[in-house]
Automatic annotation (TrEMBL):
Coiled coil: none annotated. Residues 1-22 are annotated as: Disordered. Residues 26-81 form the HTH lacI-type domain. Gene3D superfamilies: 3.40.50.2300, lambda repressor-like DNA-binding domains. This is LacI family transcriptional regulator. It comes from Micromonospora deserti.
Length: 360
């Protein structure tokens, strides 16, 4: 082997450098000819048609397809009759909560022989529009968007126009999140649900709270921070004794934020109220590393009730959001018929565990 200018390899191919011949494309016509049937009969067998085919013809077509290693052209089939895919466009696919939603969507989609494809947008309107355009071009059966907030006037209404055009072409649109768009919607009463934690903490004697509020630009966690404050104040806390700190919505965000707070001195709180469970779990790790006991020195709460909330020590007090039901219902709406937009609102339930100090 010789190295030429710039280090590029040139020269003699070795035994392993010889390309393998591509497997010839097998068409439906080839299968029909091998089975001795018409192309329409082969299509009915391999395309999942509801029309009856005689058992002997079905066996011959299936045997020929197996022998020839025939694979149905899914993209061509989609162009003829639309895809079996339900496209999910989400802000962030790495969070535990959206993972529960996606898993429930997949389970429900399988009941009707559909499947879920996913794409992430990082929550930016430009990426949302770009991704929706790409997904719509692939003609999915339905489109589900999940985002903390999607406004009809975003990008001068271009996203809304794209979704309306897709719907006019026969697609279905469902949104999981807060929106003013005219589509089927499932949302969570984040503020009211979060207020229950504030009320509980105040009622159990906590008098100084620090709220790890997540990112200020994310509508869902911002609403939760406002709800925590509502409940704490209604329970008797002075607003001056409530500290609100923004952070990255992740385990690292909780861990690093507690580290920064402790670097400035002792915590100014007997309750640490977190915008979601992963922030709370990161915060508890930082507290443990600093020798601060939960809940003896400080109580900690989360939001969402992901499975890990019961695996950590101490088990996390949180607000349970019915994420699996939301995923299931989103698919049911996506598979439903046209009609006036349906709006469903879910409310979380307080789940008290070991990470909060009971009242005295």
């Amino acid at each position: 082997m010789v190295t030429g200018n710039g280090g590029r390899r040139i020269g003699c191919p070795g035994r392993n450098d010889v390309p393998h011949p591509a497997r010839p494309t097998v068409t439906l016509h080839d299968v029909a000819a091998a089975a001795g049937v018409s192309v329409s009969t082969a299509s009915r067998v391999l395309g999942g048609s509801s029309r009856t085919v005689a058992p002997e013809y079905m066996e011959r077509v299936l045997a020929a397809a197996a022998t020839l290693r025939y694979t149905a052209d899914a993209s061509a089939r989609a162009m003829r009759r639309g895809s079996d895919a339900i496209a999910l466009v989400a802000d962030d696919l790495t969070t535990a909560s959206i993972g529960l939603v996606v898993a429930a969507m997949e389970r429900e989609a399988r009941t009707v022989d559909a499947f879920v494809t996913v794409a992430s947008t990082a929550g930016t309107p430009e990426r949302q529009l770009e991704t929706v355009r790409l997904m719509c071009a692939l003609r999915p059966r339905a489109l589900v968007l999940t985002s903390s907030r999607i406004n009809a006037d975003v990008l001068d209404g271009r996203l809304l126009r794209e979704l309306l055009a897709y719907q006019r072409d026969g697609g279905r649109v469902v949104i999981f999140g807060d929106t003013d768009m005219p589509f089927d919607t499932i949302s969570v009463e984040n503020r009211a649900s979060a207020a229950a934690i504030g009320t509980y903490l105040a009622g159990t004697g906590h008098r100084r709270a620090t709220i790890l509020a997540g990112a200020a630009e994310r509508a869902n966690v911002s609403a939760r921070a406002a709800g925590f404050t509502d409940g704490l104040v209604q329970g008797g806390l002075d607003p001056d004794d409530i500290q609100v700190v923004n952070c990255e919505v992740s385990r690292r965000g909780g861990f690093e934020t507690i580290g920064r707070l402790l670097a400035g001195g002792p915590l100014r709180a007997d309750a640490l109220v977190c915008a979601n469970d992963v922030i709370a779990i990161g915060a508890m790790s930082a507290l443990r590393a600093a020798g601060i006991r939960v809940p003896l020195d400080v109580s900690v709460t989360g939001f969402d009730d992901i499975p890990l909330a019961t695996d950590v020590t101490p088990r996390l007090t949180t607000v349970a959001v019915p994420l699996a039901r939301i995923g299931r219902d989103a698919i049911r709406l996506a598979l439903g018929g046209p009609g006036e937009p349906r709006r469903t609102t879910e409310r979380g339930e307080l789940v008290v565990r070991d990470s909060t100090r009971p009242g005295t």
